[in-house]
Design brief:
Strand content: 25-35%
Helix content: 10-25%
Shape: elongated
Radius of gyration: 26 Å
Distance between the termini: 76 Å
Order of helices and strands: HEEEEEEEEEEEEEEHEHEEEEEHEHEEEE
Number of strands: 25
Largest sheet: 6 strands, mixed
Strand order of the largest sheet: 4-13-12-7-8-9
Length: 361
């Protein structure tokens, strides 16, 4: 009897508040959300035959870096309820490696809170009483991925997923010290240093379908190592194999070393070949861009300008990583191979060239 009394006393003391911080569906909501720990606000936690339905966009949603995008989500009850209910809305971003979701935004009533790198860039669009769409402003490269819209009504919850894709360009990358020198973590950093992110398999597949052919294996976001072949040949998996994405499978992220496939999207500024009376060393090229109130362009920026602005120039120029490249949108004699692309001279040591600069608009 004494043990039973103690158990009842403990239950009365906790009152479901978990030490003063309410917990719903695996997520903590602060007092700033005006949550008083009273279930769904209506004194009910079970629906007695009422079903909560969440609808999201079935197809992938495409956008560009720097744009604003709305991820659609709406909910309703079957059968329809006459009285409004106090629900909670949670948006999260699913991680590629299936680890814990990244919190994006939570809302209760008129109160909203964004988290991490989404703070100040997201809000709910609620044009109707049962809409819970997420608006992302100034889309970034890292925003690509799958988002979960979760509607929580007391102990009941339902969710849907929205795929957000960025239109962009995939390019193979290796650093100045040579081929197959990057582990997974170094590969991610190398892409970021070139105004890009490490590409996903879906992005590489799209690039392959558009004609990307590259015989060096590179890291992808999911930790696999793959390479795209449109023209089968002996050194690239065999000439009798069908075109496709060749895969080495998942590799050790610290021990194994390869190149990397990077992904970039549209630019807010412009890339241009700097008119200068003389050819330049790398250091002179950096200074020349600064003198023009710009900065020396990065590899990802040059690829973006070639892809989205049709930058076409048959003059080799320095880039920030010490490589020398030039973009060709309209192939012509004495300007490299017959296909459009970004040509590379590698990483020259002592020669002089022009320079590509980048200026924010």
């Amino acid at each position: 009897m004494l043990l039973l009394s103690l158990a009842v006393l403990l239950l009365l003391q906790t009152d479901g508040s978990h030490g003063g911080l309410p917990f719903y569906n695996g997520f903590y909501y602060d007092r700033v959300m005006n949550d008083n720990g009273n279930g769904n606000g209506n004194g009910e936690v079970h629906f007695n035959g009422v079903r909560l339905v969440v609808e999201t966009l079935p197809d992938a949603l495409f956008t560009y870096r720097g744009a604003n995008v709305t991820l659609p989500c709406r909910y309703y009850y079957v059968p329809k309820l006459d009285a409004p209910r106090r629900i909670r809305i949670k948006w999260s971003k699913l991680r590629e490696d299936n680890t814990q979701d990244q919190d994006v935004l939570v809302a209760v009533g008129s109160k909203q809170r964004s988290f991490g790198e989404f703070r100040g860039r997201t809000h709910l669009q609620q044009a109707s009483s049962q809409e819970a769409s997420l608006v992302i402003h100034n889309v970034r490269l890292h925003d690509y991925g799958r988002y979960r819209c979760e509607i929580i009504d007391g102990l009941e919850d339902e969710s849907g997923v929205v795929d957000l894709e960025l239109r962009g360009v995939v390019f193979p990358y290796q650093p100045h010290h040579g081929r197959y020198m990057l582990n997974f973590h170094e590969a991610k950093k190398a892409c970021e240093e070139q105004d890009a992110v490490i590409a996903s398999f879906e992005q590489l597949f799209q690039a392959w379908s558009e004609g990307l052919d590259w015989c060096n294996a590179g890291w992808l976001l999911d930790g696999t190592v793959q390479y795209p072949i449109t023209q089968p040949r002996e050194p690239c998996g065999g000439k009798n194999m069908a075109p496709g994405i060749r895969s080495y499978g998942e590799r050790h992220k610290h021990l194994h070393r390869f190149d990397v496939f990077c992904f970039s999207s549209a630019l807010k500024g412009k890339v241009y070949y700097l008119t200068h009376p003389h050819k330049l060393t790398l250091e002179e090229a950096k200074q020349a861009c600064q003198d023009d109130k710009a900065e020396i362009a990065k590899v990802g920026q040059l690829y973006s300008a070639w892809k989205f602005r049709n930058l076409d120039r048959c003059d080799a120029g320095w880039l920030a990583d010490g490589s020398v490249r030039y973009p060709v949108s309209s192939p012509r004699p004495n300007c490299g191979p017959p296909e459009p692309g970004v040509r590379s001279f590698g990483f020259p040591q002592a020669e002089k060239y022009g320079v590509y600069c980048y200026k924010m608009s």
